[in-house]
Amino acid sequence: MRPILLLLPLLAATAPAPAPAPAREPELADLLTLDRDQPVVPVEIAGRRLRLAVDLSGKGTVDLNPAAAAGLGNLRFGGAPDAVLGAETLKGRQARAVARIGGMAVPLVVTDYDRPVADGVDGTIAAALLPYRTVRLARPGAAPVAATRLTFPLVDDDANGSHVRMATPSGPLFILFGLDRAETVATRSAGTRLAALGGGRIEGPVTPMPGAFGLPRDTRRLTFARPVALAGRVVRSVAVRIDDYRGRQGFPAAPGPPGALVVQARPKPGETWPAILLGRDRLGDCPEIVLTRAPATITLACTAP
């Protein structure tokens, strides 16, 4: 009997592993139409009904206001990646859940950073999580208008969210879409690439702008000698955050008075993220925005460039 016992582990080790089960296709519906100015969807998580604003450039999660997260006590929350916002680092928690959206089951991750993420709703949901082949944002009852339609491929990843990737001589730019933001803003590393592309100069005073989680971020105005087209939107100047990663390039300094000494600040380096978030100032004349899942695209129907 001893030889048989010695052979059993060998047989087990050399036996072929069972084939993995085929990945289950997500349950999808055809079309979801939302109010372009208030894109909100009802979502049920852990038996609680929530109203979530759709984040066109979300990073694949549901981000909740603290009060909403506190009502999901039966979820098992664990640690979440830190949210680094300039000099601020926020600690958070996250949990896996299965949500019900339009009657369909959607596995997702819920996060809570103990700070409000959106006003008038319970939180936000990344548009890529919506179980629809097409998501259309339009103004209800609006009369049809003549508009130019431009379609761009969308890249969706957890690090950068849903974005349009634009090549520049200095490196790629990630173009994001923020209907909840009044003004377009670029990260500092994106600003250095935009400055090289459009002959930009940093001008004007430091101006705080609301950022993620309502935290103010210091910005300055980057003005271009040559207008820059970003996802078809013409940009002649843009606010640039100056309190995050500075990139490998500096900004051309604005000319000062005769004899003045111009000093360029050197902020503490951080993680590079060359992103520009288009706000309502550049998307306000786009009455219709359409997202498709396969292929992943965004179409902007705009009345002006």
Main sheet characteristics: 8 strands, mixed
Please trace the helix and strand order, writing H or E for each element: HEEEEHEEEEEEEEEEHEEEEHEE
Shape: globular
Q: Residue share in helices?
A: 10-25%
Proportion of strand residues: over 45%
- Nearest-angstrom radius of gyration? 23 Å
Structural class: mainly beta
Low-confidence stretches: 1-23, 253-270
Please describe what this structure looks like:
- 11% of the residues lie in helices and 45% in strands.
- It is mainly β and 305 residues long.
- The longest helix is centred in the first third of the chain and has 13 residues, at 2-14.
- It is globular, with a radius of gyration of 23 Å.
- The protein starts with a helix and ends with a strand.
Quick recap of the structure?
The chain is mainly beta. The chain contains four helices and 20 strands.
Chain-wise SSE layout:
Elements: H1 2-14, E1 29-35, E2 40-45, E3 48-55, E4 62-64, H2 66-70, E5 78-85, E6 88-101, E7 104-112, E8 123-126, E9 132-138, E10 148-153, E11 155-157, E12 161-166, E13 173-177, E14 185-186, H3 188-198, E15 200-210, E16 216-230, E17 233-241, E18 275-278, H4 280-283, E19 288-292, E20 297-302
Parallel strand pairs: 1-9, 3-8, 4-7, 13-18, 14-17
Antiparallel strand pairs: 2-3, 2-6, 4-8, 5-6, 6-7, 9-19, 10-20, 11-12, 12-13, 14-18, 15-16, 16-17, 19-20
List the main descriptive attributes of the protein structure presented here.
305 residues, mainly beta, 6-stranded mixed barrel, globular, disordered N terminus
